[in-house]
Amino acid sequence: MHESNVRKRKRQTEEENASQNSGNESSQRRLQESPANNSFMASIALTTVLFALLCVYGYYSSPINAVEITGVVEVPFEGSFALNRKLSKGKRIPIHAPESCVEASDKKIYLSLHDGRIVCIHPSSDGEIGAGKVENITTGIIQGAATTSDAWGHGRPLGLRLRENSLYVMDAIYGFYVVDLPTKSIKILVKPDDVSPPMKFPDDFDITADGKTVYFTDASAKYPIPLLVQEVLEGSCTGRILKYDMVSQKLEVVRDGLCFPN
Ligand SMILES: *[C@@H]1O[C@H](CO)[C@@H](O)[C@H](O)[C@H]1NC(C)=O
């Protein structure tokens, strides 16, 4: 009984193997000969050719003129750059992408947001910084002003500096302006096309101690901030440092050919 079962199983296995082999052979033959398979291979070849053509078309029609960046120095995450978790315990305030932040002596914080607004975060009633109400200082839109790009329909303040009641702003869309905090009125000081070639990406700045001169960066003379991805992909060096004299209102280029001076 036991032996015959074993033999039966063995025979079954042999038969199964044999039928599988013959199945494999015949299916291989089918694969080689079937018209369906030929058209499958043809469609793969066609897709590959079309994809290659698309890549070539994309390469030549792209506005991006990629350049190789050389001389990049790797900085190890050590010393002052060592990883830490100091910011992980903070309280989250629901505002989007504040790029610049200044703290006033009265414990108010001014922030420049992604939607173009500048807001002030008041201290709480018991004096805790950043814990009070959020007040709109600007709307983010300066009607009728010259722009580096109209794609977003609002500004993008990047750099902020406070001098008494004047909040100076470098805006990637509108250029350089100053907000008088008591009245919230805006005065434009440098427009994007005040220099040739026009600024495309006014970015950040500093004011000399005597308050008379502003040095600022135009990160790109080619792509405005809504096309930041193109700028990053291309890697060309069209950025500049400009100098603005607040007294004579004279504007001059101090350095050009810089690689995205952010
Ligand atoms: C500030 O401006 C935003 C965007 O326009 C608006 O939604 C919000 O209600 C304003 N906040 C106050 C306190 O007026």
Automatic annotation (TrEMBL):
The keyword Ribonucleoprotein does not apply. One of its GO terms (cellular component) is endomembrane system. The chain crosses the membrane at residues 39-60. It comes from the Eukaryota. Residues 203-262 form the Strictosidine synthase conserved region domain. GO terms for molecular function: hydrolase activity. Residues 1-34 are annotated as: Disordered. Keywords: Glycoprotein, Membrane, Phosphoprotein, Transmembrane, Transmembrane helix. Belongs to the strictosidine synthase family. This is Strictosidine synthase conserved region domain-containing protein. It comes from Ciona savignyi.
